[in-house]
Amino acid sequence: ARIKGNYKYELGELAATLNYMAEEIVRSNQIKDDFISSISHELRTPLTGIKGWSETLTSGGFDPEETKIGMQIISKETERLIGLVEEMLDFSKLQQNEMKLVIGKVNLKELLQETMLNVWAKAEQKQIQLKLDDRAERPVIVVGDGNRLKQVFLNLVDNAVKFSNENSWIHLVITLKDSSTALVQVIDSGIGISEEHLGKVSDRFFQVNHNRGGTGLGLAISKQIVELHKGEMQIHSELGAGTTVSVTLPLLEMVGEAGSGAETAE
Ligand code: ADP
Predict the structure, then answer these.
(1) Cα–Cα distances in angstroms (integers) from residue 260 to residues 56, 160, 164, 255, in the given order
(2) 88, 122, 159: which to mutate for ligand 1, most atoms within 8 A of CB?
(3) How high is the pLDDT of residue 260?
(4) What is the model's pLDDT at position 258?
(5) What mean pLDDT is predicted for residues 198-207?
(6) Which residues line ligand 1 (CB under 6 A)?
(7) Among 121, 115, 213, 123, residue whose Cα is nearest residue 167
(8) Which has the higher per-residue pLDDT, 215 or 163?
(9) In this protein, which residues make up the domain named Histidine kinase (predicted)?
(10) Minimum-distance ligand 1 atom for the alpha carbon of 221
(11) pLDDT band at residue 40, thresholds of 50, 70 and 90?
(12) Average pLDDT, the chain
């Protein structure tokens, strides 16, 4: 009877586990369905623009200025499509552990300055002030893939602009977390993320609001790229108050440079 009882207990546990797994499958299928629907929409929007303008221009009768505007829209929308497809390819590379880093020395201040230039126009449109605050007392150099790290910060600052209201600000702060770790914070005063959603935003495909565009892959990709660099990415946020994304990266160990306390002896 005791053995029977044990079986009963184990069967009960097995049933509960299977139930849980079934629920997880349903949940992850739902997430994938949502992703397919949002990515289809994301791909369709630029395609519609490209189709519309190429048909219009083919029909002829436009002056050079009008033709130029049409061509510029086609080119911008094509760029957007390439960006979306690249994001999907990056995600799939990361999933399969196939993203290769091209390692070099990366000056974080220079990288963030470049990043800011890339989002300047978008921020300007919403009258958002972008500010870089370098609080480290020496050049902050990390070892990593400059293009991939730029992709991370571009994504974070782009999100900050996207989820901020007009006339607000975004601060990028560089500090030394400790003698061997750099810390970059992207701080916005935007719409924020509720506690309920905060744990999920770095999950693949997750978006709080599907109407704001995007694929829901950006944070998942960024987090994994940071982790490939042996760093960490953390998000703190308060609904209605703003979001801070903190990225830590290991510093390049300086040889024989006095005074910073961060160098190795040999
Ligand atoms: P995407 O921006 O393509 O939707 P991300 O993975 O970059 O995908 O972000 C996932 C979700 O996290 C966003 O859709 C948004 O809901 C939320 N989010 C990301 N960054 C911020 C931010 N700075 N402020 C508020 N919400 C954010």
Answers:
(1) 62, 32, 36, 11
(2) 159
(3) 40
(4) 42
(5) 85
(6) 155, 159-160, 163, 188, 190-193, 201, 206-209, 214-220, 243
(7) 123
(8) 163
(9) 38-253
(10) 6
(11) confident
(12) 89
Cα atoms in the 13 Å half-sphere on the side-chain side of 23: 6
Could you tell me if 131 and 172 are in contact, meaning their C-beta atoms sit under 8 angstroms apart? yes
Ligand 1 atom 14 nearest Cα: 207
Name the token pair of 212.
């704001």
Q: To test the ligand 1 pocket, which listed residue (88, 185, 207, 212) has its Cβ within 8 A of the most ligand atoms?
A: 207
| Gap from CA of 205 to ligand 1 centroid (Å) | 10
For residue 210, give the DSSP letter: G
Distance CA 21, CA 19 (A): 5
Q: How many helices (H) and strands (E) does the chain have?
A: 6, 7
On whether the CB atoms of residues 78 and 86 are closer than 8 A, the answer is no
